[in-house]
Amino acid sequence: MAKIETDILIIGGGIAGCIAAISLIDTHRVILLDKVDTPKERIGESLAPAAQRILKELHLVNDLQSHQEQLYIQNLGMQSYWGSDQVHIVDHLRNPDGLSKSLNRKAFEEFLRKSAMARGVQCIWPTKLHRSTFEANQWHVTTKSDNHKEQHIQTKFVIDATGRQSHFARSLGIKRSHIDKLIACWVTLPNTEENKMSTITATENGWWYSAVIPQNKRVVAFQTDSDVVDRNTFKDLDSFREFAKGNTQITALLEKSKAEITFHGVVAANSTRLEQIVGQQWAALGDAAISFDPLSSQGMFNAMASAMQLKELLIASDIIHTPNSTKEAQFQKIYSQQINTIWDQYLYHKNVFYKAEMRWKESPFWKRRHTNHL
Ligand SMILES: Cc1cc2nc3c(=O)[nH]c(=O)nc-3n(C[C@H](O)[C@H](O)[C@H](O)COP(=O)(O)OP(=O)(O)OC[C@H]3O[C@@H](n4cnc5c(N)ncnc54)[C@H](O)[C@@H]3O)c2cc1C
Prior knowledge:
Elements: E1 3-11, H1 15-24, E2 30-33, E3 46-47, H2 51-57, H3 61-66, H4 68-71, E4 72-75, E5 77-81, E6 88-91, E7 100-103, H5 105-118, E8 122-124, E9 128-135, E10 138-144, E11 150-160, H6 167-171, E12 176-178, E13 182-190, E14 198-203, E15 206-213, E16 217-225, H7 237-244, H8 248-256, E17 262-268, E18 272-274, E19 278-279, E20 282-284, E21 290-291, H9 299-317, H10 325-355, H11 364-367
Parallel strand pairs: 1-2, 1-11, 2-8, 5-14, 11-20
Antiparallel strand pairs: 3-7, 4-7, 5-6, 9-10, 10-11, 12-18, 13-16, 13-17, 14-15, 15-16, 18-21, 19-20
The site of flavin-adenine dinucleotide has 36 residues, from helix 1, strand 9 and helix 9.
């Protein structure tokens, strides 16, 4: 079996994994692997304005701008019907970081992967984490591709950036805590509207989200709890359209592009966290560490910002080039504190937002969000 050695193995080539790889490649040998050879079509397009600072720091802005047409459109802001029938508009016009970006998510992830490769990151895909052991102060990780080809990687540090599955940490027996049961069902369709602001609309059993994405397409999603709706509600496009009849604006959008809607189905959208996010010569990053409710629109920014924090800590502590148990303990303590602070802030804001909608106090979806435990 072929064996390669590296300083840092990053498992998961999504946004967290790519940003970590790009930020660490000047100071370490980095291998980045992913189970898919090309990123999947997925929901989650709104990139917070503050992400621009990270893209600048990594010298990605010029390249991004030169491919703007495929990658993103500028988004003026968000309108919401939340707490009342009155529309509230939050625009980014005075934001010092500029406007938010509505991404072509798949193309953006491809862009990050290509940038990582161009900077010298050794990228391996498609291949999956198969097993790992810790011996003589190194991780020995075996990956397996679809054709059962195994690859052995010996590494001084592992970053788990596998998203909500947190495959590496879970393979060590670490559990995830689930705060709620939120799911999202989503479709894409051609955009037919002049108003390109993203829109959020609260309803009795959850909330609608709609946003324009590049190539003049639109994403429409409904967020609810998996135990609030009947399991057949989001079985296919017909059942989704039937369900949408409860909302006149969404129905109007769906009707205008009836023949051209792509149904993508249901994805997990709940708030979850790993019970332990860092350990001996490994750390979890992005959704693998903590995953947010899409109401926050902060998941990608958190993945990017936490990758930069992790990079800074790894360089400052130098635990990879000059291992030392005192420094390692300090590194683990600080990284845990950083992620815990983000998580506590996130939960606080999540509570504030859900408690701002009090029209359906008795509906199970809202009632459980009006308690302090969520
Ligand atoms: C409905 C919904 C809407 C959202 N909307 C927004 C939004 O508007 N704005 C925003 O900022 N965020 C949004 N998010 C959140 C955002 O998508 C995530 O926070 C972000 O994808 C996290 O990036 P990541 O790199 O940590 O994980 P992921 O994007 O999940 O990447 C994980 C990578 O790991 C790979 N992988 C998984 N398992 C293995 C394995 N065993 N071996 C090898 N590779 C593996 C996967 O193929 C994938 O490429 C939304 C999320 C949902 C569910």
